[in-house]
Amino acid sequence: MTREIQEKPTLGASDFAKERSGRWIVGVVIVLGFALPLVAYFWLIHEYGVNSIWQDQWDDVNVIAHPSLGNLWAPHVDNRIFFPNLIVLLLAHTSHFNILIEDYLSGIMLVLAIGLLIFAHKRRSPSTPWPYYWPVAIIMLSFVQVGNTLWGFQMAWYLVMLALAGALFLLDEPMLTWLWLTGAMTLGIVGSFSSLQGLLIWPAGLVLLYCRSRQRRFVIAWLAGGIVTGAAYFYQFRPTGLPSNDSYVLSHPVLTIEFFLSAIGDVVGESLPTVGRNNAVLVLGVVIVAVAICVIPVYGSRGNESGSPIGVALICFGLLFAATISGGRASHGLYVAGVSRYTTFDLLILVGCYLSILDRRTQPTTEVHQKGAHSDVTFASDRSPVVPPTLRTWKANQRDDKLVLVLRVIVTSTIVILVILGTRNGLNGAKGWRQILSDSADVTVNVQKAPDDVVASVLYSFRDTAFTRQMAQIAKTRDLSVFATADARRYAREGLSVESRPVTRMVSPTNGATLKGKAWLTASAGVSIGAFAFNANKVEFVATGGGLRDEKIGSARRTYIGFLYVWNTTTVPNGSYTLKSVAYNSNGKFALSAGVVVMVRNK
């Protein structure tokens, strides 16, 4: 009897070469998927970044000039920024406080944070293909956060982001030890004393500890660390800068909720109107919050061993961030919710939803039921027990699968919208930021020639103009920022190009109107300074006709609907008149509106 021996085909050298080549190509494609949004982000800084001090950074100059422990620890508005202040001192001694280097440093922190979050999820879900993590990089490196990307002062928030990612990475170690917990608590402290929002690292970490069913001693230690850090943060805390209306949330709950939803929905970078609301942004905010509310209970169950709890923790951080911003800024107007600086942490909600739904929902297995001497238990590749599903659990899984499918469609659609609209709006915003910072550099170099209204509006310090002028002189003496570059000589040679330009127009009455008795005159008026617009200092109304020639008939009163004046038409003869509004800036410069022809007819 002969036996046929079937031999396995052997791979030749050419086959191995093809396999290696295929793997190399796949590897290159994977790297490119992460590299493209990264390169685009740093290109944005290179193309639109300006080495100029602006707004809160004048306090950085004060810290550089007076690097005392008191200045390092003192509150800035409602934040303690101790660790960012240390970085500012380092930059002052190594780069003359070059704001572009500060921007690039923020970008590096963001990239490191993205890497930590991806690796934390991948560690728990090793079967997830690397390309599935491309959207995480695309979302977190989006241009919509241009207000943080190009403003060096926001380095503090990127330090918070890095501390958050590092803390979650350490807390999610498969075998959590006191060493990892101590490291996570250290990062929590660093984040907490980088910005008020850094305190949110503690509740986000607590969510992750819950999902992982960590030992009670670790949970208690983490809670104690958060309580002590919070107590230290608010000890003798006296906020400075912008006033806040603490009662607004209670007296205007609907508007506060609208602010909250608009802030979350504006991950596409739309400019919100100063009056009214953007309904599309509001609806998108409702959709994102609804998805987050569905994801948290589905993927945040206790004992979940997949990578999903990382996403759930990020969702909680993002929602809490939006809530704190709403509580502190809702009273300033609904349009403030669209400020691009708030977008960075709002994006974490979308990132968290995406990371959560990458995995199927897993049910923790804590007990195995035996049937007689035999077990109905099989074991997966990781030796975790798997109980055969009953009809009830099968139906539940079917419902879960449908829910997950809906969530994935919504999240994917939102990401596509973000890429399309966010890129366009981010680029438009970057052009505006470059103009703002270029104007700031111009006024900083020529600060002695600039009038107070230009200094106050363009350099935009929270303090008085005397402080800003003093800090500009210190920056010049120490060769900080723009003063350490050739641009300073160019700005000085060209002189101050930024000036205040008043603008105005008649709102009512309109052409052809007939007036009698007391008539309301309304005008809109403002002062354009660089890239900003502000209310005019004074508005008057003048008339021509009936013996008058651009003669003042009254001074307007500023109201929330414009500049108003009640004109007693009985003081002039009946006939045709041309009315104009006149807007003044603080230097006495004025601008006339176009004329409106009206007919005065009194008995």
Describe this structure in a few short sentences.
With 603 residues, the chain is an alpha+beta fold. The chain is 54% helix and 14% strand.
Task: State the main characteristics.
603 residues, Immunoglobulin-like, 54% helix, 5-stranded antiparallel beta sheet, alpha+beta, 14% strand, 6-stranded mixed beta sheet, disordered N terminus, 20 helices
What does this structure look like?
It is a single chain. By secondary structure, this protein is an alpha+beta fold. It has two domains: 41-361 and 386-428, no CATH class; 500-600, Sandwich (Immunoglobulin-like). The chain contains 20 helices and 17 strands. Helix 2 (57-65) packs across helix 19 (465-477). The longest helix is centred in the last third of the chain and has 55 residues, at 391-445.
Structural class: alpha+beta
- Strand residue content: 5-15%
Helix count from the secondary structure assignment: 20
Quaternary assembly: single chain
Draw up the topology in text:
Blueprint: H1 13-48, H2 57-65, H3 69-73, E1 75-76, E2 79-80, H4 82-95, H5 99-124, H6 134-140, H7 146-149, H8 155-171, H9 178-192, H10 201-211, H11 216-234, H12 248-251, H13 253-265, H14 279-299, H15 308-329, H16 343-357, E3 370-371, E4 374-375, E5 378-379, E6 385-386, H17 391-445, H18 452-459, H19 465-477, H20 486-494, E7 500-508, E8 514-515, E9 518-529, E10 532-535, E11 538-545, E12 548-555, E13 557-559, E14 562-568, E15 575-584, E16 590-592, E17 596-600
Parallel strand pairs: 8-17
Antiparallel strand pairs: 1-2, 3-4, 5-6, 7-9, 9-10, 9-14, 11-12, 11-15, 13-14, 15-16, 15-17
Helix pairs in contact: 1-5, 2-19, 5-8, 6-16, 8-9, 8-10, 9-11, 10-11, 10-15, 13-14, 13-15, 14-15, 14-16, 14-17, 15-16, 16-17, 17-18
